[in-house]
Amino acid sequence: MPPISWSNDTYYLKRVLPLARKHKVIHFNKTDARLSNNGIPVHLQMLRCRVNFEALRFTPQIEALGRKLISTLQRSGEFVVLHLRYEMDMLSFSGCTHGCSDKETEELTRMRYAYPWWKEKEIDSESKRLQGLCPLTPEEIALVLKALGFSKDTLIYIASGEIYGGERRLAALKAAYPNLVRKEKLLSSDELWPFQNHSTQMAALDYMVSIASNVFIPSYDGNMARVVEGHRRYSGFRKTILLDRTKLVELLDHFQGGSLSWDEFSAAVKEAHQYRMGQPTDRRAIPGRPKEEDYFYANPQECVGSSSMGRLRDVS
């Protein structure tokens, strides 16, 4: 059955629970938002945290390989995870082509028209970019990391699928940060082979590393970035830099256009992100527009206050 998205607890108690009792197993399909963000009793919100961040486990094979990745990285000291969303399908779907050649733009457009279930076809890439609705390019990320104060010797793990444009698009980022690694570099082909054709399993490895990192930086919103953000809040507000893409695009254009010096650019980037480091914040609620509000799993505020910890123990 396709459950009604953004439903409250009453829907599940009155409609879904009887079906579960009757059939034992329910297959939910065509859904990515099963429960509403707000308006749920606190004890159930806390149960969501227990499930999302403690009860759920990956397979033993994924857990073992994930732990090996984390151990390898930690032996080198502190490390940053950059969730670099720059895969071909993501760029095609979003229509974001800033920094792409004409040939690449045509290729991405053809791909978008090839999938009939992708409803939006004609997309103004620059307009979306100026609204902060596009991922930052690898070249832009290199400038932003430097402006934020990350030194050249910072160990950076890239959590992503295959980067569109390959090594060519990563060249500027690698030049700025030579200690750039990915799971494909840290693990042997034999170790990765069982997961190679399973993108969600490869993402699970990146997820484990993202949770364990000293700093997590997503270049774009998305389900994984949001749930990592929430997991890191739940784990003690571990540092997560939430990039203000609208402001950054404006600053990058001014800097690259010559109207801002490097010092001015760097100072402005730091100021813009002073309060975007994963600190405690109230979850933004917009009644009637759940897709536009802050997602529960990105900011499970009911579970992360000092008084919440005692209630969590009661839930357990």
UniProtKB/TrEMBL annotation:
Pfam families the record matches: O-FucT
Chief place of localization: membrane
Keyword tRNA processing attributed: no
Subcellular location(s) of the protein: Membrane
Biological processes per GO annotation: fucose metabolic process
Annotated membrane topology: Single-pass type II membrane protein
Pathway: Glycan metabolism
MF (Gene Ontology): glycosyltransferase activity
Key words of the record: Carbohydrate metabolism, Fucose metabolism, Glycoprotein, Glycosyltransferase, Membrane, Signal-anchor, Transferase, Transmembrane, Transmembrane helix
GO cellular component, one term: membrane
Family stated for the protein in its record: Belongs to the glycosyltransferase GT106 family.
The protein, known as: O-fucosyltransferase family protein
Classification lineage: Eukaryota, Viridiplantae, Streptophyta, Embryophyta, Tracheophyta
